[in-house]
From TrEMBL, chain A:
Intracellular or extracellular location(s): Endoplasmic reticulum membrane
Pathway noted in the entry: Lipid metabolism; sphingolipid metabolism; Sphingolipid metabolism
Annotated Pfam families: Aminotran_1_2 (PF00155)
Membrane topology: Single-pass membrane protein
Taxonomy of the source species: Eukaryota, Viridiplantae, Streptophyta, Embryophyta, Tracheophyta
Keyword terms of this UniProt record: Lipid metabolism, Membrane, Pyridoxal phosphate, Sphingolipid metabolism, Transferase, Transmembrane, Transmembrane helix
Protein name: serine C-palmitoyltransferase
Catalytic function, reaction form: L-serine + hexadecanoyl-CoA + H(+) = 3-oxosphinganine + CO2 + CoA
Tagged with keyword Secreted: no
InterPro entries for the chain: Aminotrans_II_pyridoxalP_BS, Aminotransferase_I/II_large, AON_synthase_class-II, PyrdxlP-dep_Trfase, PyrdxlP-dep_Trfase_major, PyrdxlP-dep_Trfase_small
UniProtKB/TrEMBL annotation, chain B:
Keyword annotations of the record: Acyltransferase, Lipid metabolism, Pyridoxal phosphate, Sphingolipid metabolism, Transferase
Family: Belongs to the class-II pyridoxal-phosphate-dependent aminotransferase family.
Native source species: Rhynchospora pubera
Residue ranges of domain Aminotransferase class I/classII large in the record: 108-469
GO CC annotation, single: endoplasmic reticulum membrane
The enzyme's E.C. designation: 2.3.1.50
Subcellular location: Endoplasmic reticulum membrane
Designated name of the protein: serine C-palmitoyltransferase
Membrane-protein topology: Single-pass membrane protein
Source lineage: Eukaryota, Viridiplantae, Streptophyta, Embryophyta, Tracheophyta
Length: 489, 479
């Protein structure tokens, strides 16, 4: 949980207040200057009315160069960031030909499959030559190849469920599956910090949606008891079915979900569970099987397990793993299966190869080494950051660690200063996080070596001192600790 | 006796009246207060007190813990999937080679009319070579959303290329064709806005309309009179036209019927009533028009009149992903407000290279469009006398749509009949054609039928074989 010191909260509010006042002043003057210019909308309503895009125009555009930085190489542990310049104070940015090699702390490359891999890439190229780039067809028409059926069986085996079905994109998986499972007369209870795709899917389904406090199993129980006892709103008829939706690792907090407690509550009240493992599949657990393995929960207790291939497997697409009946039902009704182009065959092959490496079926132990490496890297990095006095969120073993910034001015300062020192950092502000809780988010990869991490720590510590985000007291550095760090290769 | 009581009553009355009329000796605001005024003041106070007191409701008792426990124990949920599984799943054919005009299914060579490979780019050597280069340089996935180091120079090049090809100032690239339209609509249209849509739009558009929470009006499929009537109705009802955004959503080639939207008429109406047009060109991009620029080029409408064009690239361009173009303001708005652009990983770089390769091929070989049109015309002529089925698609639509001349009455039996026809055509004649699939969540009211996707790389013998086998099977099925 985030503990916001009072002084920081006050200064953050003050900063935002100043920014808003300035923004409104500029809008006011803009209105006066534009009053003489003719309005060229000719009777059409403008795309953005009133203050809908105030935040975008007056706050976001000032620091636009911190977001959307283009790269010109694979998103591996080191990559080339393209330099950009602006002639009009960040309103428009132009590319240059120059690039800088930076340490990548922002891409979702947990197991290091992002760049060309010695086992995966030759097989991907072979499948590209055999099946071409795309099947141009939906799965039910003529878009199912042998690779797709092979991957569905492999995913089901990997995750630990009887059957699985693939989709071409993770976002679409959530948005199109939830309406197929539940409709009007049903209830969805979702964690308050769930991802936008789940929110969209829940809204599109037509069911009633209620929210429970983030990761709070007693509050979930309270909400369940109240909802089951009172039934549907206004008519008080009993609910047709109830689904609880949670995520394995929450990408903005880096926290693992309290899975055993929540599953216990769900079993007691006979509600169905839906687990979104977008960030945790392949990245946590002894053999990479996700939060269920890490927290010791039997996969048979969760009704539907969803995941994506973008993060740990270096590909694209999503999957749903559940019982055979549910998968058959989804194959018959889910619009993403019936209407959307099937996943591109080379991407399917990449996932098959990556999974084989993780399972050790390629004949080497690279998979086990990668899993051990990411665990070690994450724990080392997190503990070092905490010792330096930063406010770091997230649990142990999770490869995502957000560092709190709070103040709006520190967002561009931290981002730009780190880039000067060749470390590429991701900063997140409103609307992805609450207004006062801006943060910098670090994603650790198995491809990072110990030297990379030590360099990153040095840079972050220096910049952190400059910007002033070490909110907690620094642990006194023992004299022999520095040599200890450097000795570990 | 009676007179005694009367005397007592009379005395009491006298006492009360004298008390009422007696001056109390107090003078407030220059008015002498008499006894009766005190009594009236007391009465007024009592009335006010009663009025302000809440009416008596029986006290609301919340449910006790024990009652809640009982209700929770009694509640029985429906099963998660309540399907009648009597209908067995028909497994789609599994391909064992690239989805070109000929494909291998179950070890046999089959003529493929199920892939929307309109320009014949599946298996194109130049495209595959550029993809191999891209895979070796960038790997497969992009590992991040566009705002967090997921933007590669390939994406920016692809956007610029597409914008140049269509003739619009800018373009936004999405990572999946299916989600483009259902993310674009809610980004521009919110609660309180008005959308007019064709009733035959596909599910992704319907989902976008639902998510936008706007007021939606449907007009009869491709019927301009119905559209005009709805426009008149809406314009007369809007009170503040400057504040309500209005959109019309149509597809260039409807994938549920193969009809083409009459763009000239639609543009005329939308300019009269001040609507903005959102055009989904998934099946017409790279197909219609002299150089493949889409419906606007075919109808001779200048690009500035179309506000927003979206397209999925999984059809003519033989890659994956989606695009959305428009004016600079439109595209910039999407980069910050469209959820499928912001909250999801970007398009894999090799697919963007494939898109660039496809556009280069199309610009270098515009004759492929004439070949495609010739193929469509030839196949339509061959299929004009199939028993029991009638072609209803537009002569220029690369999706040839055949519907049943006489429906059996229910969608389910229609589907069974059509499925048996396609199965037979595949098994006995090695031609792959497909039926329309309809999800139970789909609200489209258009009839079901058979679809053939014609490609520029189909040879004349392929087309003859397809038509002949369908005629043979249909003759048996409808005899």
């Amino acid at each position: 949980m985030v503990r916001l010191p009072y002084l920081t909260a006050l200064t953050t509010l003050l900063s935002y207040g100043i920014l808003f006042v300035f923004g409104h002043l500029r809008d006011f003057f803009r209105k006066i200057f534009d009053w003489s210019k003719s309005n060229n909308l000719q009777g059409y309503a403008p795309i953005c009315l009133g203050y809908e895009d105030f935040y975008t125009r007056r706050l976001y555009l000032r620091i636009q160069d911190c977001f959307g930085r283009p790269i010109s190489s694979a998103p591996d542990s080191w990559f080339d960031v393209v330099e950009r310049y602006s002639n009009d104070n960040n309103k428009t940015l132009h590319r240059t030909e120059k690039t800088t090699k930076c340490l990548n702390l922002g891409s979702y490359n947990y197991l290091g499959f992002a760049a060309a891999d010695e086992y995966c890439t030759p097989r991907v190229i072979e499948s590209l030559k055999q099946y071409s780039v795309s099947t141009c067809s939906t799965r039910v028409d003529g878009g199912t190849t042998k690779l797709h059926t092979e991957l569905e069986e492999l995913v089901a085996r990997f995750v630990g469920k009887p059957a699985a079905v693939l989709f071409g994109m993770g976002y679409v998986t959530n948005s199109a599956i939830i309406p197929a499972l539940i409709g009007k007369g049903g209830l969805i209870i979702s964690d308050s910090l769930n991802h936008n795709s789940i929110v969209n899917g829940a809204r599109g389904s037509g069911a009633t949606v209620r929210v429970f406090q983030h990761n709070n199993a007693p509050h979930l129980e309270e909400v369940l008891r109240e909802q089951i006892a009172h039934g549907q709103p206004r008519t008080h008829r009993p609910w047709k079915k109830i689904i609880v939706i949670i995520e394995g690792i929450y990408s903005m907090e880096g926290e693992l979900c309290k899975l055993p407690e929540i599953i216990a509550v769900c079993k007691k009240y006979k509600v169905y569970t839906y687990l979104d493992e977008a960030h945790s599949i392949g990245a946590v657990g002894q053999t990479g099987r996700g939060v269920c393995e890490l927290l010791g929960v039997d996969t048979a207790d969760i009704d539907i397990m969803m995941g994506t291939f973008t993060k740990s497997f270096g590909s694209c697409g999503g999957y749903i793993a559940a019982s055979k009946e549910i998968i058959q039902h989804l194959k018959r009704t889910c619009p993403a299966h019936l209407y959307a182009t099937s996943m591109s065959p080379p991407a399917v092959q990449q996932v098959i190869s990556a999974m084989k490496v993780i399972l050790g079926e390629d004949g080497t132990n690279r998979g086990a080494k990668k899993l051990a490496q990411i665990r070690e890297n994450s724990n080392f990095f997190r503990s070092e950051l905490q010792k330096m006095g930063f406010e770091v969120l997230g649990d142990n073993d999770s490869p995502i660690m957000p560092i709190m910034l709070y103040n709006p001015a520190k967002i561009p300062a931290f981002s730009r200063e780190c880039l000067h020192q060749n470390v590429a950092i991701v900063t997140v502000a409103f609307p992805a996080t609450p207004l006062l809780l801006a943060r910098a988010r670090i994603c650790i990869s198995a491809a990072h070596s110990r030297e990379d991490l030590i360099k990153a720590l040095e840079v972050i510590s220096k910049v952190g001192d400059l910007v002033g985000i070490k909110y907690f007291p620094v642990e006194p550095v023992k004299p022999n600790k520095v040599e200890h760090l450097k000795k570990i290769e | 006796m009676a007179s005694g009581i009367m005397d007592v009553i009379a005395n009491a009355l006298n006492l009360i009246t004298s008390a009422f009329d007696a001056p109390t000796g107090a003078i407030i605001f220059g008015v002498p207060i008499d006894g009766h005024l005190m009594f009236e003041a007391l009465l007024v106070m009592v009335i006010v007190f009663q009025l302000t007191k809440k009416s008596h409701k029986p006290p609301k008792k919340p449910l006790t813990e024990k009652e809640i426990d009982e209700l929770c124990d009694e509640w029985v949920p429906e099963p998660l999937t309540s399907d009648s599984t009597e209908e067995t799943m028909i497994e789609p054919p599994t391909l064992e080679s690239a989805a070109g005009p000929h494909v291998i299914v179950d070890g046999k060579d089959v003529v493929n009319f199920a892939s929307a490979n309109y320009l014949g780019l599946v298996g194109n050597k130049n495209v595959i070579d550029s993809c191999v280069g891209s895979l070796e340089k960038y790997g497969v996935g992009s590992c991040g959303p566009r705002t967090f180091y997921g933007t590669m120079d390939v994406h920016l090049d692809c956007e610029a290329r597409i914008a140049k090809f269509i003739g619009m100032p800018d373009c936004a690239l999405y990572s999946y064709g299916f989600c483009t339209i259902f993310s674009v609509i809610p980004a521009f249209s919110k609660k309180g806005d008005i959308i007019v849509a064709d009733e035959g739009v596909h599910w992704a558009v319907q989902n976008g309309l639902d998510l936008s929470r706007s007021t939606v009006f449907y007009f009869k499929h491709n019927d301009m009179k119905s559209l005009e009537a709805i426009f008149e109705k809406i314009t007369s009802r809007i009170k503040e036209p400057e504040k309500v955004r209005r959109y019309i959503v149509v597809e260039a080639i409807y994938q549920n019927s193969g009809q083409i939207a009459p763009l000239n008429e639609i543009v005329r109406l939308k300019e009269k009533h001040k609507f903005r047009i959102i055009l989904d060109e998934s099946h017409s991009f790279g197909v219609l028009g002299n150089s493949g620029r889409g419906l606007a080029e075919y109808c001779g409408v200048p690009n500035e009149k179309i506000d927003i064009i979206t397209a999925g690239m999984g059809n003519a361009l033989a890659t994956d992903g989606g695009l959305c173009t428009g004016s600079v303001g439109v595209v910039n708005h999407q980069r910050l407000m469209s959820s499928a652009y912001l909250f999801t990983a970007s398009l894999p770089p090799y697919l963007a290279s494939a898109a660039i390769g496809a556009l280069e091929y199309l610009e270098a070989n515009p004759s492929v469009l004439t070949k495609l049109r010739a193929n469509i015309a030839f196949l339509l002529k061959e299929l004009s006398d199939v028993s029991g089925l009638a072609t209803v698609s537009h002569p220029l639509s690369p999706i040839i749509f055949l519907k049943l001349k006489k429906s059996t009455g229910s969608n389910k039996t229609d589907m069974h009949l059509l499925d048996s026809i396609t199965n037979q055509v595949l098994k006995e004649h090695s031609v792959l054609i497909v039926t329309t699939k309809r999800s139970s969540l789909d609200k489209c009211p258009l009839p079901l039928g058979l679809r053939l996707f014609v490609s520029a790389s189909h040879s004349e013998s392929d087309l003859v074989k397809a038509a002949a086998s369908l005629k043979k099977v249909a003759a048996v099925a409808f005899s």
